[in-house]
Amino acid sequence: MAEFTMELNDDQKQVRDWIHGFAADVMRPAAAEWDEREETPWPVIQEAAKVGIYSLDFYAQQFFDPTGLGIPMAMEELFWGDAGIALSIVGTGLAAIGVVANGTEEQIGTWIPQMYGTPDDVKVAAFCSSEPDAGSDVGSMRTRAVYDRAKDEWVLNGTKTWATNGGIANVHIVVAVVDPELGTKGHASFIVPPNTPGLSQGQKFKKHGIRASHTAEVVLEDVRIPGSCLLGGKEKLDERLARAHERARSGGGERVKNAAMATFEASRPAVGAMAVGTARAAYEVALDYAKTRTQFGRPIIDNQGVAFQLADMRTQIDAARLLVWRASWMAVAGRPFESAEGSMSKLFASEVAKKVTAQAVQILGGNGFTREYPVERMHRDSAIYTIFEGTSEIQRLVIARTISGMPIR
Ligand SMILES: Cc1cc2nc3c(=O)[nH]c(=O)nc-3n(C[C@H](O)[C@H](O)[C@H](O)COP(=O)(O)OP(=O)(O)OC[C@H]3O[C@@H](n4cnc5c(N)ncnc54)[C@H](O)[C@@H]3O)c2cc1C
C-alpha cells in the first residue's frame, strides 16, 4: 500500500528552495519599484528566463509533477516574492498551457517558442477571453470568428478586456464565437501571430494592485489569421460542433458541461496557491514586526490581541494551502470533483489572502499604511484573487450547484 505523506520529496524541496531564492533575491527587491512604475518588469522577466524560471520547460515540469504539487508550490513561492511581477512571469504560461492542452503538435512547436522568445529577447503571451459585457457571464461573449473558406482564413472581430499582457504580447490567444446557436459550446480559441494587422491595444488599465502586471483591452478589427491558427484544427472543431448540435437536439448537454467544469476545477487551485503566497508573505512581515515593535515597554506580540490574530492568520493560511494541495492532487489523480473542491480551494484561499493582508496592515499600525513597508502593496495585490478566474460569488455558485445538484441562480 502506498505510504501517506504530507511532505514534499527531495526534488520538490530543491525546486521550491530554488524558486524561493529567486523570489527573495530578485523579485522582492524589485517589487516596490515596478508597482510604482505600473509597467511590465521586462528586466526581471529576462532574469527569470536566464535562470530557467521563465520558460515552458519550467512550467511543464511543474505541471507534470505526478503528485500535483509542482504548480501550487511554484505559484506560492513566486507570488510570495511579489504578486504583480509573478503574474508578469506566469501570465505567458497560462496562455501557453491553453495551446499545450488543445493545440496540435505543430501548433505547440510553432507558437510556444514565440510566446516566450529567448533570454536575450524575451516575449510574453496573452489569453483573451473576457469582454466588456462578458465577465462572469462567458455565454454573453460577442467576439466573432468567421471562416473564409476561399482563403482558408479566419476573420476575428470584437473587443476583449482585462487581458493580462494584452497588446504587448507577441502571441495572443483569443476565444471567439464560431457558432452563436451553441452558447459557450460554440466558442473556439485562436492564435493571433505577432504583428497581425487589425489587432491593437485599447486602454491600459490603471489598477488598485498587481500593478507590475500589464492589463489592457485588445481590439480586433477584421483580424485575418491563417486556418492553421485555430487551436486544435478545423476537423476537430467541426466534429465538436456537430456533436454539440446533436446533443442539443437530443436534449443532453451534461457531459460537455462536466468536461468544461472539470477543466476549471483543475486550474483554479493554481490561483488559490497564488493567494496563499501573498498571504504568507504578509503574515511573515507582520510576525517579525510584532516581535520587534515595542509599545508599553514590551513587544506588541505580548498582547493576546495581536498574538491571537497571528495565530488565526497562520491557521487560515495553512488551511488554505491544504485545500489547494488536495484539489491539485485530485486533478492529477483523476479524482472527480464531486463537491467542486477546486473552486473551494480558490474561494477559501483568495478570501484568506484578503483577510490576512488586512490584518497585517493593522498589526504594522501606521507603518502598515505606508509604502515604506510591503504589506500595503500586498493588501492591494490580494484584492485580485477574489475577482479573476471566477469571482468568489461565482465560486460559491459552482460549489452550491455541485453539492446540491440544484440550478441555483
Ligand atoms: C487584473 C485583472 C487581470 C485579468 N486577466 C484576465 C486575462 O488575462 N484574460 C481574461 O480573459 N480575463 C482576465 N480578467 C478578467 C476577469 O476574469 C474578470 O474580471 C472576472 O471574470 C469578473 O468579470 P467582470 O469583471 O466582468 O465582473 P462581473 O461579471 O460584471 O461581476 C461583477 C460583480 O457581480 C457579481 N456577480 C456576477 N454574476 C453573479 C451571479 N450570477 N451571482 C452572484 N454574483 C454575481 C460578481 O461576483 C462581481 O462581484 C482579469 C481581470 C483583472 C481585474
UniProtKB/TrEMBL annotation:
This is Alkylation response protein AidB-like acyl-CoA dehydrogenase. It comes from the Bacteria. The keyword Mitochondrion does not apply. Pfam families: Acyl-CoA_dh_1 (PF00441), Acyl-CoA_dh_M (PF02770), Acyl-CoA_dh_N (PF02771). PANTHER family: ACYL-COA DEHYDROGENASE, ISOVALERYL-COA DEHYDROGENASE, MITOCHONDRIAL-RELATED. Its cofactor is FAD. Keywords: FAD, Flavoprotein, Oxidoreductase. Residues 259-403 form the Acyl-CoA dehydrogenase/oxidase C-terminal domain. It comes from Streptomyces avidinii. Coiled coil: none annotated. Residues 126-223 form the Acyl-CoA oxidase/dehydrogenase middle domain. Belongs to the acyl-CoA dehydrogenase family. Residues 10-115 form the Acyl-CoA dehydrogenase/oxidase N-terminal domain. InterPro entries: Acyl-CoA_DH_CS, Acyl-CoA_Oxase/DH_mid-dom, Acyl-CoA_Oxase/DH_mid-dom_sf, AcylCo_DH-like_C, AcylCo_DH/oxidase_C, AcylCoA_DH/ox_N, AcylCoA_DH/ox_N_sf, AcylCoA_DH/oxidase_NM_dom_sf.
